[in-house]
Amino acid sequence: MMNDTSVSQSQMSLVVAAEVKDKKAEDAGKQADLENDNEGSMKRANKKGSSDESKQSKMADESSATESYRYDVVLWLFGMLFFSLLVSLMFGIGSIRGWDADSAYNHNMSNSSMERFLPEPFTPEPGVYKRSDKEASSRWYYWKLKPEDVTAGTKLFVWFSYCLHNLSVWLVLYLQHKQKSFPDVNGKYEKKYSNTPDKYNLILFGLNVFFHLLHLLNTHTTYDGTAADTSEASSQSSVIVALIIMLFIEFKDRGVVFGYPSPYQLRKYQDSVWMSPVYILRKYHGYFIYWAAIFTFWYHPMENTFGHAFGFAHTWFFMLQGSLTFTNLHLNKYWRFTLEVWVTIHSGVVAVQTVPNIMGKELWPMFVFGFSMAIILTQLYGLPFWKNIPSWTRAIPVAVYAIIVVTSYSFIRDVQGRPFTRLQEIIRIPGIYYLILLIGWLIIVAIAKLQRISAARSISSSKESINKQESKEGAPSPPPRWKEVLVLLGTVTTYAVSVFLSWIFEYIDLKVNLIVLTMIYCFSFTLISAVFGSFLLKMLIPLQKARPSSS
User: Fold this and answer.
1) CA-to-CA distance for 265 and 267, rounded, in angstroms?
2) Looking at residues 309-331, what average pLDDT do you find?
3) 252-256, 291-295, 506-510 — which one is most confidently predicted on average?
4) Using an 8 Å Cβ cutoff, are 339 and 246 in contact?
């Protein structure tokens, strides 16, 4: 009995031991499976992480590749191609129609001019409106319809087109300017300059292309530009002031004369009120330059002459530059230099085309050597290569210019055949340049000083900057709609005054010398641009980029 019991107990022990062993084996298997599962999960996680990193890296590479591709250059090339086609149409259609009105001096020899235009009043015609005094010829614009051919339709077409062109590009430019000046809902700012034009650039480009084609249609239907109602001196003066504004824009990089004062010399004045004209016009220059280019563009019909073609090239260059705002090409110094000096070529071509080559009467030397003096004194030294060569080399262009001028004026005679007596004429254009530069500078400085005095009094108990527009949460925000509408009305009114001034002087036939009239317009347009930048635009776009407050 006892033996049976012992056997049973031994068997039970073996069974229990076997079960324990099986349990341990099962647990070990589960543990191995768990470890395998964890290892698999980690591998899958690592694989997914590597895949995500690879995707992010690929996206970054694609973004970098996109940014490195110069789409702004592509847009510029399309602009140049378009203008080449436009000029071909100007000359082609004009030739088909038999137009050959290259100069008022050839009025009686032209096949079409006698039936299209009045002759220029080289000889005073007493009692005849706009043709009665000895200065009438200098104020007369040749390429416009005879009074009996002018209708309400010829006026409405060009003025409606001009206003629509100007207002539409101003609106798009403002929307782009606002987008770049304020943060988005996440408090982040867009990159200011890029190789890739944004939607606003493309819209501006499209608008300018459309209005160029519309102007070509205008020329071959109703013909007249705004020249029928406004003064030629105002058209010239608007471009002169635009070029003077470029002197302000480039001042920090090249100074005024031979590259001086240099950027290093200007550092201690960067917070001075005397630098406010530079900051204001660098910030807001696009609006005035667009107005100047468009005003001049619609002044002239698209006549098939070289003078008109070179002039339209200049206004197109300005508008193309205005279509490239906030792109890196907009900053290109060589392209900007071309914008400034093109007037030298254009004015020379116009002078040769429209003024007979009679001894003592040629005007091309005054224009070519006058504008060239501004190049030699100021504009040349903004080009990057000057920073890499000794400063004494700046004397080389001056010496070359002096040799060319002296040699040329030994052949350029006055009406009595004497050499060198006309040398004084080369200082007239640069004289206007630098005089208007000085006047504009003083006007803006005076306005800035008054603003600082007023601001100091009005915010003595406030910690907020007068240039910040902040929401209730303290983050910078765009201006309210009512303020935008108010400034838009103020802007239109301000520039309407410029156009009205040109119209009223033309209407009353103000009998003054062309140079005097040009100075009047230059001063007026400078004052208007100063007020526009100093008051109106600062109400919408802060002079300094708006930043979130620290509170």
Assistant:
1) 6
2) 97
3) 291-295
4) yes
Residue with tokens 């690592």: 46
pLDDT, position 135: 87
Is the CB of residue 476 less than 8 Å from the CB of residue 181?
A: no
Q: What is the DSSP string of 174-236?
A: HHHHHHHHS--TTS-PPPSSBSS--HHHHHHHHHHHHHHHHHHHHHTTT---GGGTS-HHHHH
Most confident region among 151-155, 188-192, 273-277 by mean pLDDT:
151-155
Question: Which pTM does this prediction carry?
Answer: 0.84
Q: How far is CA 142 from the centre of its chain?
A: 30
Distance CA 275, CA 544 (A): 14
Yes or no: say if 301 and 224 are a contact pair by the CB < 8 Å rule: yes
Report the 10 Å Cβ neighbour count for 250.
21
Is residue 11's pLDDT more than 90? Answer: no
Other Cβ atoms less than 10 A from the Cβ of 300: the count is: 22
Phi, psi for 383 (deg, rounded to 5): -70, 140
Residues 6+ apart with CB under 8 A from 326: 176, 180, 192, 193, 194, 198, 201
Answer yes or no: is pLDDT of 145 > 90: yes
Residue 389: count of CB within 10 angstroms of its CB = 10
DSSP output for 259-307: TBS-HHHHGGGTTSGGGHHHHHHHHHHHHHHHHHHHHHHHHS---SSHH
Long-range contacts of 389-393, Cβ-Cβ distance < 8 Å, separation of 24 or more: 391/259
pLDDT digits (tens, 9 = 90+) for 207-261: 999 999 999 999 999 999 999 999 999 999 999 999 999 999 999 999 999 999 8
| Contact of 308 with 337, CB cutoff 8 Å | no
Tell me which H or E stretch contains 29: helix 2-68
- Residue 260's DSSP bridge partners are 257
Helix (H) or strand (E) holding 485: helix 481-507
In DSSP terms, which residues pair with 476 in a beta bridge? 470
Question: Given a cut of 90, is residue 93 above it in pLDDT?
Answer: yes
* Pick from 364, 375, 351: nearest CA to 412: 364
Q: Which of 292, 353, 343 minimizes the C-alpha distance to 142?
A: 353
pLDDT number for residue 544: 66
Q: Residue with structure tokens 């650039």? A: 201
The gap between the terminal CA atoms of the chain, to the nearest Å, is 96
State the sign of the Cα–Cα–Cα–Cα dihedral 54, 60, 63, 64: negative
Q: List the structure tokens of 83.
A: 């203008």
For residue 384, is the peptide bond before it cis, meaning its omega torsion is within 30 degrees of 0? Answer: no
